[in-house]
Amino acid sequence: MATIRKLPTVNLMSRNLNPGTSYWVSTCSEIRQALEEYGCFIAVYDKFSEQLHNKAFDVIEPMFELPNEVKARNSSNLPYHGYYKPGKVMPLLESLGITHPPMLHQVQSFTHLLWPNGNDLFCETIHEYAMIVAELEQLVIRMVFESYGVEKYEKAQLESTSYLLRMAKYRVPLKDETNIGGLDHTDKNFITILHQNDVNGLEVQTKDGQWLTFESSPQSFVVMAGEPFLAWSNDRVHAPLHRVTINGDKPRYSIALFSTTKGTIQTPQEMVDEDHPLKFNPFDYEGLLRFYTEDVTRMAVCSIKDYCGI
């Protein structure tokens, strides 16, 4: 069972976040420390409104009521990028994905797949959602890079970033079913920013093996590091194991923005010293993703060292 211990919370209030101020510097340090200790934190982001929170879940809920053959049009050559239908391993979970959703034409293409006659409300809402949450992801990158003193790599990192938006539904389990909505796993992308409706379910494991919960609110997100971030940081940032459990009598909906890095990912030379010898060879995201999908047991542990460790 998860404990009542809480994940750290960082208030990212735009009116206070002026680069170079003491508040900015202390918040950068707060984020870095949370990622090193827990691998994640709750971000309260005031640029995201309660109105957009409500609209986003209002438009995705009917999407899951579409016929399966319609949702199956959301296909991809990359694992976990297209439609995931409930199966024996995770019978409660169903999800769809949009690649590069900050680009309006990508959301339009996805919308046309599911609604050939159009669905302007869905398209406009999800594009707005993706733009704001991608801005949050970029803010976190900037603050972490500055906290480590490697801000000269920030521009290249942001220019090489691409995004995947996954919208998920976890139905209520039947009496004879498990309540595990999402199996224990670590993320294989750089950063995940997760938002959920009023049904909690996310649990994150600490380094000492305790499971912590995330209490949702309209302006709160879980910002979580994936294994590529761990390797980039030369094993300073933690990539936490996490899962989803479903309790109660309402389905859980979530929206997750995954950031990935195009091209080669490598540890900055400034992150290597006598106390922190280089631990990872350069690698690329797609190669890492395919490595994990070759063996499903690799999804449940943080084993990037098996892929590119020195």
* CATH fold-level assignment: Jelly Rolls
Strand content: 15-25%
Question: What order do the helices and strands follow?
Answer: EEHEHHEHHHEEEEEEHEEEEHH
Shape: globular
Mean pLDDT: 93
* Measured distance between first and last alpha carbons: 36 Å
Largest sheet: 7 strands, mixed
Quickly give the structural class: alpha+beta
Counting DSSP E segments of at least 2 residues, the number of strands comes to: 14
CATH architecture: Sandwich
**Helix segment count?**
9
Structure, explained:
- This protein is an alpha+beta fold and 310 residues long.
- The protein has one domain (3-308): Sandwich (Jelly Rolls), CATH 2.60.120.330.
- Helix content is 31%, strand content 24%.
- It has helices at 22-37, 50-60, 68-71, 104-114, 120-147, 154-159, 227-232, 285-293, 304-308, and strands at 3-6, 9-12, 40-45, 93-99, 161-170, 180-185, 191-196, 202-205, 211-213, 220-225, 242-245, 252-261, 264-265, 283-284.
- The strands form 3 sheets. Strands 2-3-10-7-12-5-4 form a 7-stranded mixed beta sheet.
- Helix 1 (22-37) packs across helix 5, helix 2 (50-60) packs across helix 5 and helix 4 packs across helix 5 (120-147).
- The longest helix is centred in the middle third of the chain and has 28 residues, at 120-147.
